[in-house]
Amino acid sequence: MEEDDVTIREQNFHSQVREYIICFLIFAVLYIVSYCIITRYRKKSGISLCSLYLCTFTLAVSGGAVFLLPFSIISNEILLSFPKNYYIQWLNGSLIHGLWNLVSLFSNLSLFVLMPFAYFFLESEGFAGSKKGIKARILETFVMLFLLALLILGIVWVASALIDNDAASMESLYDLWEFYLPYLYSCISLMGGLLLLLCTPVGLSRMFTVMGQLLVKPTILEDLDEQIYCIHLQEEALQRRLNGMSLGDVLLNKELDNVRNQRNKLERRKKASGWEKNVLYPMVMLILLAGTTISVFMVAFNILYLLVDETAMPKGSTDRGIGNTTLSTFGVAQAVLQIVLMFYLMVSSVVGFYSLRAFAQLTPRKDDTTMTTIIGCCVSILVLSSALPVMSRTLGITTFDLLGDFGRFNWLGNFYIVLSYNLLFAVVTTLCLVRKFTSAVREELLKALGLDKLQLSNSPTDPESGKLSANGHQKTL
């Protein structure tokens, strides 16, 4: 019996070591990719290495949160397909639960400690009268972090007193690790879910415009040669005006750059192959439309399930039986569809986030993004990615139960919040798509009625059209 106990302890030890090594390798890959992304956009001068490494860590955690649910679904299906395969024995429930807990822990650490530290350290110079140096900056940073922690503690305490004025709930706030931090992260998760609810419908409609700018549209009733000729005339006129000035005009230079960009786009459209214009572009648009339509229908079905069956509520799972039963009605095909939709929603939420006017200033620019902007981007992406598994389960995009601390959020058990979340997502997404696809018809109706000069519509103009009309003629010279 003692030898059996020793053997079991050795197996458990080796299993834990193997899980730590796998988690480390996954995080190392995410960290390297995140570092490459940040160095592509950051300014090359005036960068604090401490803030840079902390931002890289946070972006890696965000990537882990994005891949968390798809990795769990894939692992479950693999274990169902190959239950006794020796080479995939490392893929077990203990590893999946460990990844969920680590992502939750690192998300809290990055959101409440690392990112505030990176920002305060970047802005710190040391207290007045103290000797300037790294120690003075670190001291000021820790003091600011302490004051920020007191401020957040007070805000959450007051909010808890207003919402749930109960002695038991107030006493539970004294338990910092078991209740207060999970309660605080639950509030942040709810805020992230609301931010996703705001950004995702906008991003779903914006994706059509973004892909239209990346791909070459079909040429229908357009004379590209005439448009290029008009652009050349405008470019030569602006160049002559600039040559006649002793000092260059900033506005004229900017206008000349815009004209050259339009000329490059038109030349790219002219050189594009027929396959790219007539096959790839319609196919991509149909895929985007199908993904959005399927997402709305799945949310609509989830609303019906919520009304008739309480098991549709998002809930946490403590069962470690990963790989015992399939969580998809149609097996692997439905699991793949769920994963594709989750990535599509995440990309759409990021596009929608940067499309909102309030967050447009955070849009990163290649080799010209300040460290403060990078910190803001990392925090925003971390909030969005951490709320992605919760949103996917709440909307019924996936039936995989939330594991670890993700399933302990208080608001997940509130039927009215979950139902309202689903209804708002379905309604707002439908309205955004209707507005997107009817904007052209609305513009033509306003022009036919002579109301276009009143600017009743605020739909943006096509950046590729510039100052050219549909028939290729210049509107203004």
Please sum up the structure shown:
The protein contains twelve helices and two strands. It is mostly helical. Belongs to the LIMR family.
* Beta-strand fraction estimate: under 5%
Oligomer: single chain
Main sheet makeup: 2 strands, parallel
Order of helices and strands: HHHHHHHHHEHHEH
The pLDDT mean sits at: 75
Give the C-alpha Rg: 27 Å
Structural class: mainly alpha
Low-confidence stretches are: 456-477
Number of strands: 2
Order of strands in the sheet with the most strands?
A: 1-2
Distance between the termini: 93 Å
3D shape: globular
GO cellular component, one term: plasma membrane
Keywords: Membrane, Transmembrane, Transmembrane helix
Transmembrane segments: 20-38, 50-74, 94-122, 142-163, 183-204, 279-308, 335-359, 371-391, 411-434
GO molecular function: transmembrane signaling receptor activity
Explained architecture:
This protein is mostly helical. It has one domain. The protein is built from twelve helices and two strands, in the order H-H-H-H-H-H-H-H-H-E-H-H-E-H. The protein has a two-stranded parallel sheet with strand order 1-2. It is globular and about 85 Å long.
Strand and helix map with partners:
Elements: H1 2-41, H2 49-81, H3 93-123, H4 134-163, H5 167-172, H6 176-214, H7 224-243, H8 250-271, H9 274-308, E1 316-317, H10 332-355, H11 371-394, E2 402-403, H12 415-448
Parallel strand pairs: 1-2
